[in-house]
Amino acid sequence: MNAFKAFKANVPIAWSPNLYITLVRGIPGTRRLHRRTLEALCLRKCNRTVMRWNTPTVRGMLQQVKRLVVVETEEMYKARKQKVEQHVALQPPLVVNHLPAPSSASAS
């Protein structure tokens, strides 16, 4: 099963006050009505996320373009962003010392 399909199947959007909507599929080749719906949601480029209030109007628009978008609740969005930030976080630099190690026992 596709990761996005599994992700979308488990989203409880009925109780969340805010919805984070991400466009994950391209607009070219879609129906004019779907393009207009995405334009109304202010989704113009792939992998862009917008926040919308959870209203029946917005849920109807999402139902229309559900194969093009991923819907997240606020908690899911923050968890995903935090995971991405931790993944991209800078690691301490690796210091390589090319000098010979000092010997503790001196030659007698």
UniProtKB/TrEMBL annotation:
InterPro entries: Ribo_uL30_ferredoxin-like_sf, Ribosomal_uL30_bac-type, Ribosomal_uL30_ferredoxin-like. Keywords: Ribonucleoprotein, Ribosomal protein. GO terms for molecular function: structural constituent of ribosome. One of its GO terms (biological process) is translation. One of its GO terms (cellular component) is mitochondrion. Residues 20-69 form the Large ribosomal subunit protein uL30-like ferredoxin-like fold domain. PANTHER family: LARGE RIBOSOMAL SUBUNIT PROTEIN UL30M, MITOCHONDRIAL RIBOSOMAL PROTEIN L30. NCBIfam families: rpmD_bact (TIGR01308). Belongs to the universal ribosomal protein uL30 family. This is Large ribosomal subunit protein uL30m.
